[in-house]
Amino acid sequence: MKLLFINIKELLQVRETSIEKLSGKEMKSLPSLNNAWLLVDNKTIIDYGSMDNLPELEVDETIDATGKMIMPTWCDSHTHLVYAGNRELEFGQRIKGMTYEEIASKGGGILNSAKTLQETSEEVIYEQSVVRLEEVMRLGTGAIEIKSGYGLTKEAELKMLRVIKKLKENYTLPIKATFLGAHALPSEYKEKKVEYIDYVINEILPEVAAQGLAEYIDIFCEKGYFTVEDTQKLLAAGKKYGLKPKIHVNQFNAIGGVQTGIENDALSVDHLEEMRPEDINSLKNSTTMPVALPGCSLFLSIPYTPGRKMIDAGLPLALATDFNPGSCPSGNMNLVVSLACIKMNLTPEEAINAATINGAYAMELSKTHGSITKGKIANLIVTKPIPSYTYLPYSFGSNNIDSVYINGKKLK
Ligand code: NIG
Ligand code: FE
């Protein structure tokens, strides 16, 4: 099936050669082509060019994109999209003045979601997750990472990971699975944190690995959750099974998780709302991608990741949603890109780069996704007619998406 898009007002994120990731300096530019055509053969981007030089091509379908932009789909490298139920009651409590920490300390928060998930059947969790996945795909997400971490028992963690596996089997966008058994301390293990970490390492992790249920390993490295020592121990164990780290660090407190991640060759360190100068310095010359989650900052009214400062220091940056029931019940990457511009002072070019190619890197997908490059997979966003790409973050809350293509096929 050959598709030819013609009269594209602007083709965005056009990269002639495949690149791994963009540094802060490289993020400043967003290469694009005005008045363009784009040729897709089955799943693959074959060619593109200017309408002034449109070759004679035999195709199955020609799509007129007059006034519209085409760009790679969003690469959302951090989500907890598989969960059961919701936490809107806690949202109400927070509006009335309780903090996220207070709610968690009273057995709400992650433990609340874990209880619901444990009591919900695999089929129902799958059905609820499908609704979310299809929603974010319609919003332009064409590659996604999904974590476990609302199970907190061997049985329930494996159940979550099997749901992710089923999503992988039934949907054509790339999905990466992360094992987050160390997300919070279950109440049965109160005052027995070492025992819980050992349970995760000795009982759950070997089974996750044996069944091939995860690519990555994660831990919530935070005061009141897990220490850098716990993190070190877990990441070392994960390494034995070939699971690379992608970890939650510096959300409320900077306690050294960034450095532990880098020392363990983490693919990414995520959250980073609290960054010390030494955290920024440690990330220089590392292969670890820093990932900001501005939807979480918005929803919890906590500081935004100092993305401007990090990019100015030369660091790369990726943007992701953190889609989860407690700290960011939205998987909308368009909103994330707007927030990055409005609240983190990223330019539209930087934000779009962070949400595409650098997000792809944070899932080891930048060879195949994240840019309009010959040979890459045709996961595309076609926008509605818009005046410029700056209009995307500017018109926050509007849906500017006309259609989404995954593997060269239009989503219904
Ligand atoms: O990334 N910080 C840890 N985990 C999630 C939120 C979990 C929850 O509240 O359910 C996050 O923000
Ligand atoms: Fe998260």
Automatic annotation (TrEMBL):
Enzyme Commission number(s) of this protein: 3.5.2.7
Sequence positions that bind N-formimidoyl-L-glutamate: 150, 324, 326
Pfam families for this protein: Amidohydro_1
Localization (cell): Cytoplasm
List of residues binding Fe(3+): 78, 80, 248, 322
Residue intervals of the Amidohydrolase-related domain: 69-409
Chief place where the protein resides: cytoplasm
Catalytic activity: 4-imidazolone-5-propanoate + H2O = N-formimidoyl-L-glutamate
GO function term, MF aspect, one: imidazolonepropionase activity
Residue positions binding Zn(2+): 78, 80, 248, 322
The record's free-text note on cofactor binding: Binds 1 zinc or iron ion per subunit.
HAMAP family: HutI
Family the UniProt entry places it in: Belongs to the metallo-dependent hydrolases superfamily. HutI family.
Protein name per UniProt: Imidazolonepropionase
Organism of origin: Gillisia lutea
